[in-house]
């Protein structure tokens, strides 16, 4: 097994168990203590685990501190894929959609590319535009503005004005936190203003948020939960949590 394959397997175990033991990993992969130590060191440098005596645990999530895009794209991949499949059921052939920058929306774009032949996508995300530009029936409209290097996207006043030219059937919006008290929250102020513009130019607004984002509050408010048409999430969301939001009138879509 190659190193990157072990890394992926270790992260999958951490998602399932929340912690792993070094001896367990040595047996599972039939490798030495030094090999597992190097694996854990590499994953810890990327912020994907925390080494502890005898093993490793998942890092404590701080929703007020944004991890780099390249780190986030390797976290909760299965949940993102699952909710993306669910979200695709809300889309029809030939629609025009806003997709903001996020690792979740990048997974969603992969599903759209597989399921549909004709579509117009309006995005500020370089990864999404790059992923979809070779699809013949897809029209990709890339939002102009100031490049935010670390997030691989475009933000700012130019971007917000650019968005005003378009009307979309739906906006699929990413979020860092979902809370009954504080609504939808996220990190960057520039990105938040762009989200608000996309919301105002869309017939429908759906939030794409994996189950870890619930009952969490990030840096800045985007909107109230009542301002969105639904929250698409994964099947790992506890039933009691989903019921609390549904009782508050929020449409939780995870099947």
Order of helices and strands: HEHHEEHHEHEHEEEHEEEHEEEHE
Give the terminus-to-terminus CA distance: 34 Å
The neighbouring-strand order within the major sheet is 6-5-4-9-12-14-15
Give the proportion of residues in helices: 25-40%
- Strand percentage: 15-25%
Q: Rg to the nearest angstrom? A: 19 Å
Q: Compute the number of strand runs.
A: 15
Low-confidence stretches: none
Label the overall shape.
globular
Structural class: alpha/beta
Mean pLDDT over the residues: 89
Can you summarize the main beta sheet? 7 strands, parallel
Q: Count up the helices.
A: 10
Keywords:
single chain; 10 helices; seven-stranded parallel β-sheet; three-stranded antiparallel β-sheet; alpha/beta; 15 strands; 255 residues
3D structure, described in words:
With 255 residues, the chain is of the alpha/beta class. Helix content is 39%, strand content 23%. It is built from ten helices and 15 strands. The chain has a seven-stranded parallel beta sheet with strand order 6-5-4-9-12-14-15, sandwiched between helices. A three-stranded antiparallel beta sheet has the order 1-3-2. A hairpin with a 2-residue loop joins strand 2 and strand 3. Helix 5 crosses helix 6.
Give the secondary structure arrangement, pairings included.
Elements: H1 3-17, E1 19-21, H2 22-29, H3 33-45, E2 50-52, E3 55-57, H4 69-72, H5 77-88, E4 96-99, H6 103-115, E5 119-123, H7 126-132, E6 138-142, E7 146-148, E8 153-155, H8 157-163, E9 168-174, E10 177-179, E11 183-186, H9 189-200, E12 202-208, E13 220-223, E14 230-232, H10 239-247, E15 252-253
């Amino acid at each position: 097994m190659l190193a990157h394959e072990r890394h992926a397997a270790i992260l999958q175990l951490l998602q399932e168990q929340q912690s792993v033991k070094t001896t367990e990993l040595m047996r599972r992969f039939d490798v030495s203590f030094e090999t597992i130590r190097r694996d854990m060191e590499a994953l810890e440098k990327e912020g994907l685990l925390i080494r502890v005596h005898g093993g490793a645990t998942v890092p404590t999530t701080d929703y007020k501190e944004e991890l780099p895009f390249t780190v986030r794209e390797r976290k909760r991949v299965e949940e993102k894929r699952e909710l993306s499949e669910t979200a695709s059921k809300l889309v029809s052939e030939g629609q025009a959609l806003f997709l903001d920058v996020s690792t979740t929306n990048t997974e969603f774009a992969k599903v759209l590319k597989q399921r549909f032949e004709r579509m117009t996508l309006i995005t500020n995300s370089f990864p999404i535009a790059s992923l979809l530009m070779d699809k013949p029936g897809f029209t990709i409209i890339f939002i102009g503005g100031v490049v935010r290097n670390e997030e691989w996207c475009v933000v700012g006043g130019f971007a917000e004005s650019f968005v005003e030219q378009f009307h979309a059937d739906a906006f699929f919006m990413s979020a860092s936190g979902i809370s009954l008290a504080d609504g939808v929250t996220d990190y960057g102020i520039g990105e938040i203003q762009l989200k608000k513009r996309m919301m105002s130019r869309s017939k429908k607004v759906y939030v794409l948020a994996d189950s870890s984002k619930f009952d969490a509050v990030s840096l800045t408010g985007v909107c109230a939960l009542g301002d969105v048409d639904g929250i698409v999430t994964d099947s790992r969301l506890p039933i009691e949590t989903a019921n609390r939001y549904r009782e508050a009138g929020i449409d939780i879509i995870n099947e």
